[in-house]
């Protein structure tokens, strides 16, 4: 059973940076896309960033120009570089991987941005 293990969350001051990582415990074949979602207290989970197998990326408007999603196919890992963090970025961040047949969620990592 494939597991996604996230790391890199923590507490940072506004304007700071964090880099999230999400590594698969096993090789995932035929990945369609990899994504990062986040969920703030009392809010619905929202899509933050997405990267396709071909490397095409998309971002929600609120993080454009500040966040960068990338992937390492050999390591089955997806990253989210977060710069110029704001208090409204505070949330639990989840990675998500969709292959041709299955999908996988990570357990989540807390990101807290203090003002």
Could you please describe the fold and organization of this structure?
This protein has 115 residues and is mostly beta strands. The protein is 0% helix and 56% strand. It is built from no helices and eleven strands. The strands form two sheets. Strands 2, 4, 5, 6, 9, 10 and 11 form a seven-stranded mixed sheet that branches.
Task: Output mean pLDDT.
Answer: 95
Give the C-alpha Rg.
13 Å
> What class, by secondary structure content?
mainly beta
The backbone outline, from C-alpha atoms, is globular
* Major sheet: 7 strands, mixed
Tally of DSSP β-strands: 11
Distance between the termini: 40 Å
N-to-C SSE series? EEEEEEEEEEE
Q: Helix tally?
A: 0
- As a percent range, the share of helical residues equals under 10%
Q: Strand content of the residues, in percent? A: over 45%
Low-confidence stretches: none
Assembly state (oligomeric):
single chain
Quickly describe the structure:
The chain is an all-beta fold and 115 residues long. The chain has no helices and eleven strands.
List the helices and strands and how they pair.
Elements: E1 4-7, E2 10-13, E3 18-24, E4 31-39, E5 46-52, E6 57-59, E7 67-72, E8 77-82, E9 91-99, E10 103-105, E11 109-114
Parallel strand pairs: 2-11
Antiparallel strand pairs: 1-3, 3-8, 4-5, 4-9, 5-6, 7-8, 9-10, 9-11
Keywords:
115 residues; seven-stranded mixed β-sheet; 11 strands; four-stranded antiparallel β-sheet
